[in-house]
């Protein structure tokens, strides 16, 4: 029988974000400005296929309905298609999503879909190729755009795009983004820039509240939609003249944590109760054999009783999160 994971604040957890690598080939200014450096926080190998199979099976037994594969850049794993297929073995997991920088989309998206991927988020911070290059350190704008087209061609009816909202970088470009999604079923989600251990200076310079965009959308006749229980934290807005939607992810807004429905497992098998949490609870030793599942379930459920009511970002406390490539944003 499935027992639903619940914490001390009666929040239920339907959604697992699973990081499968820390490696990334981009150098986004707000994440890995100097590029990925092996050995950092985690000088260990990343979860292998059997460990991924076991961890997702256990979360499925605990009521997880949705798994997001993230990183680093998850698609840099050579066995990425096999990872999707391994998660797919769990019938209870109805949604398998990936968050990707889009680098491998054009080449591989059809095969990911065949393996069982149901949803795609692509990170695109600018629709200007030169600015995209400046932000990511990679001259790959056209390749990423071709990847989004390929996702539609492969049969995805909708694609989500993540855009980190940055004052004086892209916050004046709302019209450009809206024109782009007008004919396309893209949910474009502006994410407020979050402060990380390594990104304090950038944060002070470029953080902007998503409320600025929300006011503008409402003024222009956009309508807020309701969310369902395994949805992410985005406030989603639609407009009758647009095929696309706008999402706002505002971790600095009051009560953001009240609707938290997700847990995170890092690429080395640590359970993190919050993106901006503590050192994590080691699960890996219980991922070595199928017979350990009951012990693993107990460890996860036990850890959840320590989940705090909210993050402490407002106090400038970023926990251990030096950058988001470690536990995948
Ligand atoms: N490499 C993949 C990608 O970029 O989509 C997946 C991992 S990335 C860490 C996941 C998401 O976190 C991306 O959409 C990225 O834009 C976002 N992100 C990274 N650092 C951030 C920060 N400091 N503030 C807000 N969002 C951030
Ligand atoms: Fe890589 Fe994603 Fe971080 Fe950009 S946001 S550096 S693509 S992990």
From TrEMBL:
Monomer and homodimer. Pfam families: Mob_synth_C, Radical_SAM. S-adenosyl-L-methionine binds at residues 30, 72, 123, 194. It catalyses: GTP + AH2 + S-adenosyl-L-methionine = (8S)-3',8-cyclo-7,8-dihydroguanosine 5'-triphosphate + 5'-deoxyadenosine + L-methionine + A + H(+). One of its GO terms (molecular function) is GTP 3',8'-cyclase activity. GTP binds at residues 17, 68, 99, 160, 262-264. Catalyzes the cyclization of GTP to (8S)-3',8-cyclo-7,8-dihydroguanosine 5'-triphosphate. [4Fe-4S] cluster 1 binds at residues 24, 28, 31. [4Fe-4S] cluster 2 binds at residues 257, 260, 274. Keywords: 4Fe-4S, GTP-binding, Iron, Iron-sulfur, Lyase, Metal-binding, Molybdenum cofactor biosynthesis, Nucleotide-binding, S-adenosyl-L-methionine. Residues 8-234 form the Radical SAM core domain. The gene is moaA. InterPro entries: Aldolase_TIM, Elp3/MiaA/NifB-like_rSAM, MoaA, MoaA-like, MoaA_NifB_PqqE_Fe-S-bd_CS, MoaA_twitch, MoCo_biosynth_MoaA/MoaC, rSAM. Pathway: Cofactor biosynthesis; molybdopterin biosynthesis. Gene3D superfamilies: Aldolase class I (3.20.20.70). Its EC number is 4.1.99.22. This is GTP 3',8-cyclase. Binds 2 [4Fe-4S] clusters. Binds 1 [4Fe-4S] cluster coordinated with 3 cysteines and an exchangeable S-adenosyl-L-methionine and 1 [4Fe-4S] cluster coordinated with 3 cysteines and the GTP-derived substrate. Belongs to the radical SAM superfamily. MoaA family. It is an enzyme of class 4 (lyase). Its cofactor is [4Fe-4S] cluster.
């Amino acid at each position: 029988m499935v027992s639903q994971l619940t914490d001390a604040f009666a929040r239920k957890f339907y959604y697992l974000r699973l990081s499968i690598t820390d490696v990334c080939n981009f150098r986004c200014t707000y994440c890995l400005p100097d590029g990925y450096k092996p050995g950092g926080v985690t000088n260990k190998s990343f979860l292998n296929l059997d460990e991924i199979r076991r961890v997702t099976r256990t979360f499925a037994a605990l009521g997880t309905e949705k798994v997001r594969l993230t990183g680093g850049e998850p698609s840099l794993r050579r066995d990425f298609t096999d990872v999707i297929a391994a998660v797919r073995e769990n019938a209870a997991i109805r949604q398998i999503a990936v968050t990707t920088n889009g680098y491998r989309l054009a080449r591989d998206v059809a095969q990911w879909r065949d393996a069982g991927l149901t949803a795609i988020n692509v990170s695109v911070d600018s629709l200007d190729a030169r600015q995209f290059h400046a932000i990511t350190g990679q001259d790959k704008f056209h390749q990423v755009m071709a990847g989004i087209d390929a996702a539609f061609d492969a049969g995805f009816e909708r694609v989500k795009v993540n855009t980190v909202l940055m004052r004086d970088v892209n916050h004046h470009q709302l019209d450009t983004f809206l024109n782009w999604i007008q004919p396309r079923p893209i949910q474009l989600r502006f994410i407020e820039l979050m402060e990380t251990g390594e990104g304090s200076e950038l944060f002070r310079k470029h953080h902007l509240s998503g409320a600025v965009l929300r006011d503008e959308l409402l003024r222009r006749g956009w309508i807020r939609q309701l969310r369902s229980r395994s949805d992410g934290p985005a406030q989603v807005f639609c407009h009758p003249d647009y095929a696309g939607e706008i999402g706002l992810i505002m971790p600095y807004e009051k009560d953001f944590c009240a609707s938290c429905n997700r847990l995170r497992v890092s690429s080395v098998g640590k359970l993190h109760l919050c993106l901006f949490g503590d050192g994590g609870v080691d699960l890996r030793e219980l991922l070595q054999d199928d017979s350990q599942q009951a012990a693993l379930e107990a460890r996860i459920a036990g850890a959840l009783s320590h989940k705090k009511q909210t993050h402490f970002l407002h106090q400038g406390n970023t926990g251990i999160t030096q950058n988001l490539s470690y536990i995948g944003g």
